[in-house]
Design brief:
By secondary structure, the chain is α+β, with helices and mostly antiparallel strands. It contains five helices and eleven strands, in the order βββαββαβαββαββαβ. The protein has a five-stranded antiparallel β-sheet, with helices on both faces. The longest helix has 18 residues.
């Protein structure tokens, strides 16, 4: 996959797995920050207050470089890690997966727990709509009225998204374009007389 795109889920989804009367409810939720992820974890903890364990993992950033997992009282690395492993093997990011366990009275053992948490996470992902997104560069340009036609022709050819425009005293436009296409757009705009970039 090009390094300026990534895969995530379009909307929250749910999954389920059961083993020896233990029930594992799983929730995959798109998130943009660690704070947002923890808010969802707290909300699910409140909702399923009577569950034995609420285990989770998240991965953030286009390259998946920010991640955390939590076993919530299960034996070390039997819950959070398998959930995180499932996110990684599905090549997803900007996603949180929470697995809520209701204990069925029969111990599953460490390997049984790993399989159960992995399968519960996999079911939530299987029920999610996966979408590919691009990593974008957003910047502003300021130019004078006489340059308007030249600038507009470049924008028409390079096709960036126009986020905002303001043509009052001088011309200001905020643009967004896929990162890999940004250098060429910037280079072409830089050739316009008196045009300035704003970050």
């Amino acid at each position: 996959m090009p390094n300026d795109c990534f895969r995530t889920i379009a909307a929250p989804s749910e999954g389920f797995f059961s083993e020896k009367r233990s029930r594992f409810l799983s929730f995959a939720i798109p998130v943009a920050s660690a704070e947002e992820a923890m808010e969802h974890v707290d909300a699910l903890r409140k909702k399923f207050y009577d569950a034995r364990h609420v285990c989770w993992a998240y991965m953030l950033g286009p390259d998946g470089s920010v991640y955390r997992s939590n076993d919530d009282g299960e034996p070390s690395s039997t819950a959070g890690k398998p959930i995180l492993g499932r996110i990684k093997s599905s090549e997803l990011t900007d996603v949180l997966i929470v697995v809520v366990r209701y204990f069925g009275g029969i111990e599953l053992g460490t390997s049984g727990l790993i399989v159960a948490y992995r399968n519960a996470a996999a079911d939530a992902i299987a029920n999610a709509q996966i979408e590919e997104r691009t990593v974008d560069d957003t910047f502003g340009i300021v130019f004078e009225y006489p340059q308007q036609n030249v600038v507009m022709r470049i924008l028409k050819e390079e096709k960036p998204a126009v986020i905002s425009r303001n043509f009052q005293t001088d011309c200001r436009i905020t643009l967004r374009i896929r990162k890999s296409l940004a250098p060429r757009l910037r280079q072409r705009l830089a050739s316009v007389d008196n045009l300035k970039f704003e970050s």
